[in-house]
Amino acid sequence: MTFFKNEENKIINKFLQNGYYIGKVEDKKSLEYLNKCIKKKITKKKTLNLNSFHKYNKIKDLNKIRVKILNNLNKNKSIRNKYFNLAREHLYTLVGNELMMQKRLNLSIQVPNDSSSLLPIHSDVWSGDSPYEINLWVPLVNCYKTKSMYILNQKKLSFFLKKIKEKKIKSSKQIFDIIKNKVEWINIKYGEFLIFNQTLPHGNIINLENETRWSLNCRFKNIFSPYEDKKIGEFFLPITTRPMTKIGINYKYPFI
Predict the structure, then answer these.
(1) Is residue 166, in this structure, part of any structural domain at all?
(2) How far is CA 180 from CA 83, 119, 123, 135, 177, in A?
(3) C-alpha triplet 72, 77, 189: angle, nearest 5°
(4) Is-contact 45 124, C-beta < 8 A?
(5) Which residue ranges in the chain fall short of pLDDT 70?
(6) CB neighbours of 59 closer than 8 A, spacing ≥ 6?
(7) Which segments of the chain are extended strands (E)?
(8) CA–CA separation, 97 and 38 (whole Å)
(9) Is the pTM of this model over 0.90?
(10) How many domains, the chain?
(11) What letter does residue 253 receive in the DSSP assignment?
């Protein structure tokens, strides 16, 4: 028996069935703030269209621009709170209300026909992340087809595990070839967010659309859930520690 509200159950069931959930941003002002912070580091023009970024910038400068934007974002003391506010209630529903948040936001810029910004198929837990973590992925432009990311739906996971056992895997390309007809391409608009189970295989390929993809992502987990390689203080910081947790942590039995 659970005591979730009907709306919470709808979110939970969709997430468990698919391995991901797409919802509308809860705080539009925070999203606009993030957007302005990013555009400010690219140009002084207020009308900048992120979709057209590739028309005015060279691929060789891409990483330099990305690092510049990220450093600026992560120096901003309010930025993580703004990001959290984009899906605060949904994170509470899916993860809990005592949360750890990644120390730094991540930014992805994928211009058309660029092979230097690829993230081959992977599951975050394969490289030291905890299976108790969740990823909040927020597009800064409409993302669709190869301009977006793909994920293997939870329903197809058993197929993947069976195939992996049958074959000797030597590369990420070999893994993708096994499931390329089974993955789902995330169709998501600016103003929406994606929360996904990062234990599921996911990634991207060369952007074959005529627009640049911009997206932010950041991981969250419950304070009391198990950790793997990425620890408190090094990778995660607490953001919603409740009063009784603080009292309990600091309690000392009196000497008799």
Answers:
(1) no
(2) 31, 15, 15, 22, 5
(3) 65
(4) no
(5) 44-47, 256
(6) 111, 114, 116
(7) 20-24, 99-102, 106-110, 134-139, 150-151, 184-185, 192-196, 202-203, 213-222, 236-238
(8) 29
(9) yes
(10) 1
(11) P
Bridge partners (DSSP) of residue 217 are 106, 137
End-to-end CA distance of the chain: 43
74-86 pLDDT per residue, tens: 999 999 999 999 9
178's tokens: 């096994």
| Residue 219: closest CA among 109, 127, 83, 120 | 83
CATH number at residue 139: 2.60.120.620
Residue 36 structure tokens: 């302005």
Q: What is the pLDDT of residue 42?
A: 85
For tokens 């660029």, the residue is: 114
Token readout for 201 is 């295989």
The confidence score (pLDDT) of residue 161 equals 87
Burial class (CB in 10 A: 0-12, 13-18, 19+), 93: buried
d(CA 23, CA 26): 9
**For residue 163, is it within any domain?**
no
Round to whole Å and give the CA distance between 126 and 118.
17
Pick the closest to residue 144 from 208, 216, 219 (CA basis): 208
Question: How far is the CA of 191 from the CAs of 87, 100, 215, in angstroms?
Answer: 11, 24, 12
Buried b (16+ CB within 10 A) or exposed e, 216-248: bbbbbbbbeeebeebeeeebbeebbeeeeeeee
Separation of alpha carbons 54 and 179, rounded Å: 30
User: What range does the domain containing 228 cover?
Assistant: 6-158+184-250
